[in-house]
Design goal:
The complex is a heterodimer of chains A (431) and B (287). In chain A, 41% of the residues lie in helices and 20% in strands. Chain A has 14 helices and 17 strands. In chain A, strands 2-3-1-4-5-6 form a 6-stranded mixed sheet, with helices on both faces. In chain A, strands 8-7-9-10 form a 4-stranded parallel sheet. In chain A, helix 3 runs parallel beside helix 4 and helix 6 packs parallel to helix 7. Chain B is an all-alpha fold. Chain B starts with a helix and ends with a helix. Chain B has a two-stranded antiparallel sheet. Chain B has one domain. The chains are: A alpha/beta (431), B mainly alpha (287). At the A-B interface, strand 8, helix 8 and helix 9 of A face helix 1, strand 2 and helix 10 of B. Chain B: It comes from Thermus thermamylovorans. Chain B: GO terms for molecular function: transmembrane transporter activity. Chain B: Its main location: membrane.
């Protein structure tokens, strides 16, 4: 081959090379990858990226871009510093263009500071703390405008849904067991996010209807989020005569709670938030003793919140052989939302993409996602509220919303079944 | 409430006692402050979980205990015995060993929570308090194991030499007791006790790679409270801490998360009044 031929080959190679790199969007998927929360963030993002790439990629202006996902293990369960360092490394060394994911609020707080420093868009898909966005995006827009949250709903909204679920169970106790003033015990892990929920729940349960639930609060127990044994707490709750246990548990304590509650057949129905009970592994983790535990969740088998819910669950299960948790649906939605925003913006210029993201109106597997002025996902009927789920007959089934009357409308999803009181609760208290 | 404190406190004491006795034995005889002690407990629980997928409970438990025993003796032979003159180095090595075991568990089993089926499902009521039958079984097992360990230490020549080494190493050596051999026996027995505690607790516990950390704090506290190196002291320390924890949960439900903190406060108060612990020689004398 002559010198001219060689030069032509080099030129073609360079052109091809530059073309490939210019047409790739590098998205960092961040999370604790050794844990189910991070693993599902990765799976959800993978599914969305594959769908988009199969359809030809993301159209931005006149060009089509392929999505390349970069797996960023944050080790955030054990080290917040590791998480911030991982994000910095992803931005500077791995050259990611956007960030999606995060689970532990404390770690996400640190990671989003790094993202703001580098002016990188970070779409949160796993952490609930209100203050990740409220007080930052609204008060210091120029620094924090790059932050958005797709899932879960913020803590105060999760509180609203969990209180609605508790209302269902209190009503079931009242109607099915003939107890006019059910007794409720509050079992909340000792954590900052749980404090306002405990305070609100205590007031709401005790207040007379229609403002409150007309129940009696028999006590509040606050174990550590990492407690490995809650037998003394459960024994005390049983002796206090509670018929309902309102749980506010996001940490590993949720598992010993379910296991000890089932093993001791505590005659009080648990409902509220138990993040461990949201996962497919719940019954295995509790040696099948966590049956009848009820919790807030994002998805449930067979419940079509939107037309995208069932196809998402089916594809996810076929591909990964697991039921998706909320970080999966969150990451899946986040990648699609980002792709749509990039197409609308017609450019990868970060300020233009932020503006396009602010105009998002996307219907995903868990509901309709519209960002509020703090870039947080809007809660409410017609948007995203979550589901109430209960473990019955070896599977997770939804019990809420079912004929939920709100703002002059009735919200109900197909596949939602009535709540079932645990049989030993019925046996202990039926009058 | 008194019944709840009594019953739950007793059950918790059995578990803490088994772990504390093994720890005290290792320190008393081999002079090793083994911070990997509860990591051996975790390893036994995970091994049981793994072997139960392949065989019945008894062979799985036996294999798990032997695996942990082998692991502990290997660790002692390779890392700890050559370094045991350097207390701070040994401390760091045992922490490293514990973290290594934790990371291996994370690698092999992931961060998912696991459970081991209970041998005895259901519960019984004692003085009106519900107690899981598995917890009672664990308590009986702990009692049996502690009695056996006691009989071995008190009733055999080997036990005598281990106790002699624990009390006064120089005098024991002058009497012809091999400190190295006693060290191996103490480390082996200590690890075996940790493994048996892991096997007893596994059906009631949530298996996850960090499960060794919370009991380590309690065990350290129990051993210091009882008097470093004192075997009856370790048991008494475990009893005091377990009852302190259960009492806090029952008396101050809103402060249930403080159960370990209050137990540690009791430890500090006891040490202020009696720095050598309840049964121990004074620190100055130890040195």
């Amino acid at each position: 081959m002559g010198r001219i031929g060689t030069a032509v080959l080099w030129a073609v190679a360079l052109l091809l090379g530059s073309g490939v790199s210019a047409q790739t969007l590098r998205i960092g998927v961040v999370g604790p990858m050794a844990f189910v929360q991070g693993e599902h963030t990765w799976y959800g993002a993978t599914l969305a990226a594959e769908e988009i790439n199969r359809a030809g990629g993301v159209q931005i202006g006149n060009q089509r871009y392929r999505i390349e996902l970069i797996r960023v293990d944050t080790n955030e369960m054990t080290s917040v510093t590791d998480a911030a360092t991982a994000v910095e490394r992803a931005i500077t060394a791995q050259r990611v263009d956007f960030l999606v994911g995060g689970f532990r609020s404390e770690a996400v707080l640190a990671m989003t500071e790094v993202a703001a420093d580098y002016r990188k868009i970070f779409i949160i898909t796993g952490a609930a703390l209100d203050g990740l966005l409220a007080g930052r995006v609204d008060r210091n827009y120029e620094r924090f405008k790059y932050l958005f949250r797709v899932s879960p709903n913020k803590s105060s909204d999760l509180a609203r849904t969990s209180l609605l679920l508790a209302g269902e169970v209190i009503q079931a106790v009242r109607q099915q067991l003939g107890i006019p003033r059910p007794r409720v015990a509050i079992l909340a892990e000792r954590a900052a996010w749980a404090d306002p929920l405990v305070e609100t729940a205590g007031r709401l349960f005790a207040a007379p209807p229609p403002q409150g639930y007309g129940a009696e609060v028999v006590g509040t127990w606050r174990p550590s989020a990492t407690a490995t044994d809650v037998t003394p707490e459960l024994t005390a709750i049983q002796r206090a005569g509670a018929q309902v246990i309102f749980t506010v548990l996001s940490g590993p304590v949720g598992v010993p709670f379910g296991r000890d509650w089932g093993r001791l057949r505590i005659p009080a129905a648990p409902v509220g938030i138990n993040v461990e009970a949201q996962q497919e592994t719940w019954l295995r983790a509790t040696d099948n003793l966590g049956t009848y535990v009820a919790t807030l969740n994002s998805l449930a088998p067979g419940v079509a919140i939107t037309p995208r819910t069932i196809p998402f669950i089916s594809t996810f299960q076929a591909r990964f052989r697991q039921f998706p948790i909320y970080t999966a649906s969150g990451a899946y939605g986040a990648i699609h939302i980002l792709a749509e925003a990039l197409t609308r913006a017609g450019t990868t210029n970060v300020d233009a993409v932020v503006r396009a993201l602010e105009a998002t109106d996307y219907t995903g597997p868990t509901g309709r996602i519209v960002f509020d002025r703090t870039h947080d996902v809007t809660w409410g009927p017609g948007y995203t509220t979550g589901l109430g789920v209960q473990w019955v007959g070896g599977r997770m089934q939804a019990f809420w919303p079912r004929n939920w009357q709100v703002e002059g409308r009735v919200v109900s999803y197909a596949g939602v079944r009535p709540y079932q009181l645990p049989p030993w609760v019925v046996e202990a208290w039926r009058r | 409430m008194l019944a709840a404190i009594l019953v739950n406190g007793l059950v918790l004491s059995g578990i803490y006692g088994m772990l504390a006795l093994g720890f005290a034995l290792t320190y008393g005889v081999a002079r090793i402050l083994n911070l990997a002690h509860t990591a051996f407990y975790m390893a036994a629980a995970y091994a049981l979980f793994f072997f139960l997928g392949l065989m019945g409970f008894a062979p799985a438990a036996l294999l798990s205990a032997l695996l942990v025993l082998g692991l502990a003796l290997l660790a002692y032979w390779f890392f700890l015995e050559p370094l045991k003159e350097y207390e701070a180095t040994v401390l760091i090595v045992t922490i490293a060993l514990a973290l290594l075991l934790q990371e291996v568990a994370l690698l092999l089993f992931g961060g998912h929570f696991r459970s081991v089926p209970a041998l005895l499902p259901g519960f019984v009521e004692i003085l009106g308090v519900r107690v899981a039958q598995q917890a009672l079984l664990a308590l009986l097992f702990a009692g049996g194991v502690l009695l056996l360990a006691w009989a071995f230490l008190k009733g055999t020549r080997l036990g005598l030499s281990i106790r002699a080494a624990a009390q006064d190493q120089e005098a024991a050596e002058l009497l012809g007791i091999s400190l190295s051999r006693a060290g191996y026996w103490a480390v082996g027995l200590g690890a075996l006790l940790a493994a048996l505690a892991g096997l007893a607790v596994a059906p009631m516990a949530t298996l996850e790679p960090h499960m060794w950390m919370p009991p380590l704090l309690v065990v350290l506290a129990a051993v210091v409270l009882g008097g470093l190196g004192s075997l009856p002291g370790a048991l008494l320390g475990a009893l005091v801490l377990a009852f302190a924890e259960v009492t806090v949960v029952n008396l101050v439900p809103g402060g249930a998360f403080l159960r370990t903190a209050v137990a540690l406060l009791i430890l500090v108060l006891v040490l202020v009044l009696r720095p050598e612990g309840l049964f121990g020689a004074s620190f100055a004398e130890e040195r």
